[in-house]
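S.,

Sequence below, as promised.
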Amino acid sequence: MRLIIVRHGETDFNKNAIMHGQVNTQLNKKGFEQVAKLAERLKNEKMDIIFTSDLDRAQQTAMGIAQYHKAPIITTEQLRERSHGVFDGKPALEYINFIKKYGLNRVTFKPDGGESYPMVKVRAQKFLDSIMGKYKNKTVLISSHGAFNRQLLGILLEIPIEQAVDLAQGNACLNIVDVNERGKHEAKVIGCVKHL
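The prediction came back faster than expected:
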């Protein structure tokens, strides 16, 4: 099984360092341009099925890539970005300062009404479990978000959650991980943005 994991293109929230979380935003002009370049890079890849977060920015990214493929697109809440609860839609600096002020552990911190990274990891594991047996020997595209992708990759690369939260996942980046019959994972590309 080949997993092609992408992060959505740029939005105005990204551009202005605002916490997305599960706020539903659209790609901006630069974001659509990034997706066009990512789609061009992936146009000759075999693709059997496409899974996307139900948030517009991830769906727009998936559709941009799908124009070169006949693969069905499945939309799911499981691939949503980490919810930052009360910090969704707020400047990232506000969140960072809150964590510093109260000496919180950024990995285990669960904002009011939101998710901690371990909770996102559980969600990522459930998603992986749901596709692993079903799409053996297939190529699966996953269009999602920075924090979610980091936890998904952390599971696949078998690295601690503390390391996974720091994996580079720029807008419209590409990750490719092959999974063999014995469930071993081989990272081909991680956080690549050379197409941009």
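The CA atoms of residues 43 and 68 lie 5 Å apart.

Coffee later?
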